[in-house]
Predict the structure of GTP cyclohydrolase-2.
Amino acid sequence: MSIKYIATSQLPTPWGVFAMHGFEDTETGKEHVALTFGELNADDAILGRIHSECLTGDALFSLRCDCGFQLQTAMQNIAELGQGFILYLRQEGRGIGLLNKIRAYELQDAGANTVEANERLGFKADMRQYDMIKPMLEQINVTRVRLMTNNPRKVKAMQQEGIEVVDRVPLQVGKNRYNEAYLKTKSTELGHMMSEYHFNDEQS
Ligand SMILES: Nc1nc2c(ncn2[C@@H]2O[C@H](COP(=O)(O)OP(=O)(O)OP(=O)(O)O)[C@@H](O)[C@H]2O)c(=O)[nH]1
């Protein structure tokens, strides 16, 4: 893993003007983005989100998942607070890529759940890696984080990368009739802490 900082610009959004920082993984060619809002000091615990790419939810308004809703709510929360960050990681489909995610959706349309669909295609349920986050956070001056997530494995992965996760901030938004089964599987099989299902305790 070799992460190279490329450039910073403004990103005006409906919630406020973020700064957008571009990064390149020079080994894989993947292009990642960090958004920041306000002044970030290394001593502060900064509200933030590590968000994996979901073209369908983030850009195409899909109701099959909660991704787009989580991204928008996280950006809104950060802008309202006046300080925070988003790392937007190009790990589409929990790391299997867009076309394989569409293959997985095809299997889900035929009755498989999100984990079974990945496994039938020969993938693990979650193929993501998080070794890009440390150099990205270093570049934007973040060492301590209040992380908006329901995913305890994300919290652990960050801690393993040497990031201090001071707090986990739940981010339960966007539940609808098309993603109810998806959210339930996240809770029962992927370990997400989703209060409405009561299948997980709060230990991470
Ligand atoms: N393989 C697969 N990936 C999916 C499916 N639905 C959504 N995704 C991907 O799941 C990932 C969700 O990542 P995040 O938004 O970081 O969320 P998370 O790890 O589930 O945990 P939270 O932080 O609680 O949201 C994105 O890469 C989506 O593209 C699906 O049915 N199958």
